[in-house]
Amino acid sequence: SWSSLPKKAQLAILTLSRLSEPLTQTSLQSYMFYQLKSFHPPSGPPPTDRTVAQQAGILAAAFTGAQMLTAVLWGRLADSERFGRKKVILVGLLGSAIGSLGFGFSSSFAMAVFWRAVGGMLNGNMGVMRTMISEIVREKKFQSRAFLLLPMTFNIGVIVGPLLGGLLADPVGSYPGLFVENYTGWMGRWPYALPNVVNAGFLGCSALGVVFGLEETLEGLRGKKDWGLKISGWVLRRLFRRGKRGPGYTALSMEEGVGEEDIELSGGTSAAADEHKPTRGPAARRKKLPFRRIWTPNVLFTLLAHGLLAMH
């Protein structure tokens, strides 16, 4: 059942991180036409509907095009032990927040395209999130439900995003009773900034959840010191007064717990202990396959099917 899914807290953080992204991408659909109409000199006429239609297509392509060019790079960084999955997701969330704020406060079409491209260039989270779910939920019987979480969350964001954008766009014109007459604040100067500020707030909250709650799943970085998790653990212990009542139990590594006197663990000889000691250096690292090895027929057909579906 759904309640049987393991590591629900980790899945919840990934789900919330995934929810904040479609909110940002789809909320602008409800006001993009009017925002593009506003991009003109004070003394000049607004762009024609045909021009706005072309500009809307360029704006949509700027984000996905930049994302396509950098997605493989973010995937490689997520596989490296110097970066890892968690940092890539964090950069993606913060990059989307920066791109959203820049787009909301844009005063020209060129600025809007630039910030949309920045948001796409810094966001490679989709593939990394799927990879993390496969590493968090290792049992096959749970994976079918766990992998459904991301598309379900995306569809919720697609529904809520345009509603949120339509309600918050141009607040001075939509809700004149809430503002003084001749209001000249930032909501009047940038009437389409408020939805993006709210979306950036959602992305920032998701980033905080990743910093203080998400565990690294990359094989070479598991168990490494994570200051975000340490701080959140200390705060939770303070809030709920769960101080340590004793030394507790800690797993010993083979080199710490096995010696010549450890008869039961070493089998009576120190040679056995030496045999089980973890090797260090380049030989102990997992061998990485070359990038060309991913292009199998199954992968190519899957990419083709997914591309055709996205194009429709």
TrEMBL record:
According to the UniProt entry, the coiled-coil residues are: none
GO cellular component assignments: membrane
Q: What are the UniProt keywords, alphabetically?
A: Membrane, Transmembrane, Transmembrane helix, Transport
Topology within the bilayer:
Multi-pass membrane protein
Do you know which SUPFAM superfamilies this protein is assigned to? MFS general substrate transporter (SSF103473)
The listed locations are: Membrane
Q: Which residues cross the membrane?
A: 56-76, 88-107, 113-133, 145-169, 189-214, 294-311
Q: Which GO terms describe its molecular function?
A: transmembrane transporter activity
* Chain positions covered by the region annotation Disordered: 264-285
Domain Major facilitator superfamily (MFS) profile as annotated: residue spans: 10-312
| Pfam families registered for this protein in UniProt | MFS_1 (PF07690)
Name the PANTHER family for this protein.
MAJOR FACILITATOR SUPERFAMILY DOMAIN-CONTAINING PROTEIN 10, MULTIDRUG TRANSPORTER, PUTATIVE (AFU_ORTHOLOGUE AFUA_4G08740)-RELATED
Instruction: Please report the name of this protein according to its UniProt entry.
Output: Major facilitator superfamily (MFS) profile domain-containing protein
